[in-house]
TrEMBL record:
Top-rank taxon, per record: Eukaryota
Transmembrane segments: 12-40, 60-87, 99-122, 181-203
Membrane topology according to the record: Multi-pass membrane protein
Species assigned in the record: Todus mexicanus (Puerto Rican tody)
GO-annotated biological processes: phospholipase C-activating G protein-coupled receptor signaling pathway; positive regulation of Rho protein signal transduction
UniProt name for this protein: CXCR3 protein
Amino acid sequence: MKDLRRYLVLKYVQYLVLSSSNPISTFLGLLGSLYTLIILQSAKVSSKSTAVLISSLAKVDILVSMSIVLEVVAWIFGVGISSTVFMPALLQNLLTANAHISCLLLSCVAFEAYLITFFPIESRHLRTVRNARLTSRIIWILVTAECTLFQMDDLLKASSMSASTCSPCLSLFHVSSMAAALLRSLSYLLGILLRILNVYIYYKIFFSMSN
């Protein structure tokens, strides 16, 4: 459990404290996720909702690994990443999906810790393995849809540069661009709210335990 707590602290620093990712935090995050997945396979770790959420959090780093592999493959085979629109957009959206899913899962872990601390009996029916798996699945679906829209918007922007103003795809481009811009703004605001919420939750828990 101490190792899992250290892993959560690492992820909180990586996604909710640092303003942007860097190679050191990304590398440590990948190592921590691999080690956590190995720990969770142990029979000593009970299958509870928190373990399910942490397992999902560790698996999210697969997206980071995918982006690294794609970039290495493009470099080996001489594919200019900056010369095409699809590849840089895909790499960016994979990292965006990783960050958004991780922030949401970390907030779910914090909320569960809040329930365990202040409402242990009343919230028992909510803190189930089934609900944790369902929550993780919903988060994955929503963020995947979000980044799919971002990818479509990037491709439509590139195609609209060479298309004429009478192109039938122009209206689709405007709708997609407005939806993507609105979603990016909402994601930014949600990220700020999640940071505030996590700080508040752990502030309450810390002073409750100290008292």
